[in-house]
Design a protein that fits this description.
single chain, four-stranded mixed beta sheet, globular
């Protein structure tokens, strides 16, 4: 059975749990990080003291997008991990692109979700909202021509940005009208693993 270490309110943990459910993999998740802390045993698994970490049949791995690729390659089929390098790379680029989006969204998320109103940096929130809107405009243009980030079918590339789409639509910030992103988000919301593990209260 797959073991996942990490608290579910972490974006990066949500990615891994969601994929495990898409792959119909049985798993056990341990709450680690944040208010749950990290003991020496966990730090021995992940020297970065970050989450998530997995153990799969004795194989230990950290870094969320690396975990996604590993699980897709080992436990998925062609839909999840295309054999053709070019096809795989077209989706894989969006997994890397998500890292820049996460950086842009960070100030809005932490100020609005994890700080008291009196402690919020409103200028940082505005900058973050503007930066994420600019990036989402790029995503919207792509989704005007492709139903999914993975191509014409839902796949691995949709998971990292799919996790970050939920706060994009949930945070109390100004957002441009991006119909293709909205359509894609609506399709994600119909997936049981997304609804159960990603669309939880932001904390």
């Amino acid at each position: 059975m797959l073991t996942i270490w990490g608290r579910l309110n972490s974006h990066n943990v949500k990615k891994v749990v969601w994929l495990a459910e898409e792959l119909a993999m049985p798993y056990f998740r341990h709450d680690v990080g944040g208010r749950f802390g990290m003991d020496a045993a966990y730090r021995g698994l992940n020297p970065n003291a970050l989450i998530p970490t997995i153990e799969d049949d004795g194989f230990v791995l950290w870094e969320s997008n690396a975990i996604l690729r590993y699980l897709a390659a080992r436990h998925g089929d062609e839909r999840w991990f295309p054999a053709d390098p070019a096809t795989r790379a077209l989706g894989d680029r969006w997994m890397e692109w998500q890292n820049g989006f996460a950086e842009a969204q960070r100030d809005a998320f932490f100020n609005l979700i994890r700080r008291a109103p009196a402690d919020r940096d409103t200028a940082a929130i505005t900058r973050s909202a503007q930066a994420t809107a600019k990036l989402m405009t790029i995503l919207d243009a792509h989704l005007a021509e492709h139903r999914w980030l993975s191509g014409e079918g839902f796949g691995l590339a949709d998971i990292p940005m799919g996790v970050y789409a939920h706060p994009w639509f949930t945070l109390a910030v100004n957002r441009p009208d991006l119909p293709n992103v909205a359509r894609w988000y609506g399709d994600l919301r119909d997936r049981p693993g997304y609804a159960a593990n990603v669309m939880i209260p932001l904390t």
